[in-house]
Amino acid sequence: MDALTTAVKVAGTGLGAQSERMRVVSENLANAQSTSDIPGGDPYQRKTISFAAELDRESGGSMVNISAIARDSTAFPLEYQPGHEAADENGYVKMPNVNMLVEMADMREANRGYEANLQVMKQARELISMTIDLLRST
To answer: Which residue segment(s) compose the domain that 18 sits in?
Structure first.
Protein backbone atom coordinates (compact mmCIF):
# COMPACT_ATOMS: atom_id res chain seq x y z
CA MET A 1 0.00 0.00 0.00
CA ASP A 2 1.42 3.38 -0.94
CA ALA A 3 2.04 6.28 1.46
CA LEU A 4 -0.81 8.45 0.15
CA THR A 5 -3.38 5.71 0.55
CA THR A 6 -2.06 5.05 4.05
CA ALA A 7 -2.36 8.77 4.87
CA VAL A 8 -5.99 8.77 3.71
CA LYS A 9 -6.72 5.66 5.76
CA VAL A 10 -5.09 7.08 8.90
CA ALA A 11 -6.87 10.42 8.49
CA GLY A 12 -10.15 8.56 7.98
CA THR A 13 -9.81 6.81 11.32
CA GLY A 14 -8.96 10.18 12.88
CA LEU A 15 -12.12 11.69 11.39
CA GLY A 16 -14.21 8.89 12.83
CA ALA A 17 -12.63 9.22 16.26
CA GLN A 18 -13.10 13.00 16.42
CA SER A 19 -16.67 12.65 15.18
CA GLU A 20 -17.43 10.22 18.00
CA ARG A 21 -15.72 12.57 20.46
CA MET A 22 -18.01 15.41 19.28
CA ARG A 23 -21.03 13.14 19.81
CA VAL A 24 -19.97 12.38 23.40
CA VAL A 25 -19.32 16.06 24.15
CA SER A 26 -22.67 17.02 22.62
CA GLU A 27 -24.42 14.45 24.78
CA ASN A 28 -22.70 15.85 27.87
CA LEU A 29 -23.72 19.41 26.97
CA ALA A 30 -27.30 18.37 26.25
CA ASN A 31 -27.57 16.74 29.68
CA ALA A 32 -25.71 19.38 31.72
CA GLN A 33 -28.88 20.13 33.72
CA SER A 34 -30.46 16.63 33.73
CA THR A 35 -31.22 15.68 37.31
CA SER A 36 -32.79 12.56 38.72
CA ASP A 37 -36.54 11.93 38.75
CA ILE A 38 -36.46 10.62 42.31
CA PRO A 39 -35.48 12.43 45.52
CA GLY A 40 -31.76 12.02 46.26
CA GLY A 41 -31.17 10.09 43.03
CA ASP A 42 -28.12 10.40 40.84
CA PRO A 43 -28.28 12.80 37.87
CA TYR A 44 -26.73 12.39 34.43
CA GLN A 45 -23.11 11.29 34.74
CA ARG A 46 -20.61 12.85 32.35
CA LYS A 47 -19.14 10.56 29.70
CA THR A 48 -15.50 10.48 28.69
CA ILE A 49 -13.87 9.00 25.62
CA SER A 50 -10.42 7.43 25.29
CA PHE A 51 -8.46 6.67 22.16
CA ALA A 52 -5.79 4.12 21.36
CA ALA A 53 -3.37 3.75 18.46
CA GLU A 54 -3.47 0.47 16.59
CA LEU A 55 -0.96 -0.62 13.98
CA ASP A 56 -2.52 -1.61 10.67
CA ARG A 57 -0.29 -4.44 9.46
CA GLU A 58 -1.39 -4.10 5.83
CA SER A 59 -0.48 -0.42 5.48
CA GLY A 60 1.99 0.01 8.31
CA GLY A 61 0.04 3.05 9.52
CA SER A 62 -0.97 3.80 13.07
CA MET A 63 -4.78 3.98 13.14
CA VAL A 64 -6.89 5.66 15.80
CA ASN A 65 -9.47 3.55 17.60
CA ILE A 66 -11.84 4.32 20.42
CA SER A 67 -10.62 2.30 23.37
CA ALA A 68 -13.42 3.22 25.78
CA ILE A 69 -16.41 5.41 26.45
CA ALA A 70 -16.66 5.59 30.22
CA ARG A 71 -18.42 7.51 32.97
CA ASP A 72 -16.66 10.31 34.84
CA SER A 73 -16.43 9.35 38.51
CA THR A 74 -16.06 12.87 39.90
CA ALA A 75 -18.53 13.88 42.60
CA PHE A 76 -21.86 15.43 41.71
CA PRO A 77 -22.14 19.07 42.81
CA LEU A 78 -25.01 19.80 45.22
CA GLU A 79 -27.39 22.72 44.81
CA TYR A 80 -29.88 23.86 47.41
CA GLN A 81 -33.30 23.66 45.72
CA PRO A 82 -35.83 22.48 48.32
CA GLY A 83 -38.79 22.54 45.89
CA HIS A 84 -37.12 20.40 43.23
CA GLU A 85 -38.48 16.88 42.66
CA ALA A 86 -34.97 15.41 43.01
CA ALA A 87 -34.18 17.21 46.28
CA ASP A 88 -33.16 15.04 49.20
CA GLU A 89 -34.56 15.43 52.72
CA ASN A 90 -32.23 18.42 53.30
CA GLY A 91 -33.33 20.21 50.11
CA TYR A 92 -30.17 19.49 48.10
CA VAL A 93 -30.23 18.29 44.50
CA LYS A 94 -27.37 16.37 42.93
CA MET A 95 -26.45 18.10 39.69
CA PRO A 96 -24.61 16.48 36.77
CA ASN A 97 -20.81 16.50 36.96
CA VAL A 98 -20.64 18.32 33.61
CA ASN A 99 -18.51 21.46 33.46
CA MET A 100 -19.65 23.56 30.49
CA LEU A 101 -16.23 25.22 30.08
CA VAL A 102 -14.43 21.87 29.95
CA GLU A 103 -16.96 20.53 27.44
CA MET A 104 -16.68 23.60 25.21
CA ALA A 105 -12.87 23.36 25.25
CA ASP A 106 -13.12 19.64 24.45
CA MET A 107 -15.52 20.40 21.60
CA ARG A 108 -13.16 23.01 20.16
CA GLU A 109 -10.25 20.58 20.36
CA ALA A 110 -12.28 17.82 18.68
CA ASN A 111 -13.32 20.25 15.96
CA ARG A 112 -9.70 21.24 15.31
CA GLY A 113 -8.65 17.59 15.20
CA TYR A 114 -11.45 16.83 12.75
CA GLU A 115 -10.44 19.75 10.52
CA ALA A 116 -6.77 18.69 10.59
CA ASN A 117 -7.64 15.15 9.52
CA LEU A 118 -9.94 16.49 6.82
CA GLN A 119 -7.10 18.67 5.51
CA VAL A 120 -4.79 15.64 5.36
CA MET A 121 -7.41 13.79 3.31
CA LYS A 122 -7.84 16.74 0.94
CA GLN A 123 -4.07 17.09 0.44
CA ALA A 124 -3.60 13.35 -0.16
CA ARG A 125 -6.49 13.29 -2.62
CA GLU A 126 -4.99 16.27 -4.46
CA LEU A 127 -1.58 14.57 -4.62
CA ILE A 128 -3.15 11.35 -5.91
CA SER A 129 -5.00 13.34 -8.57
CA MET A 130 -1.82 15.16 -9.60
CA THR A 131 0.01 11.83 -9.85
CA ILE A 132 -2.72 10.41 -12.10
CA ASP A 133 -2.58 13.54 -14.27
CA LEU A 134 1.21 13.19 -14.61
CA LEU A 135 0.90 9.53 -15.57
CA ARG A 136 -1.69 10.39 -18.24
CA SER A 137 0.52 13.04 -19.82
CA THR A 138 3.50 10.72 -20.28
So the answer is: 3-38+47-72+98-137
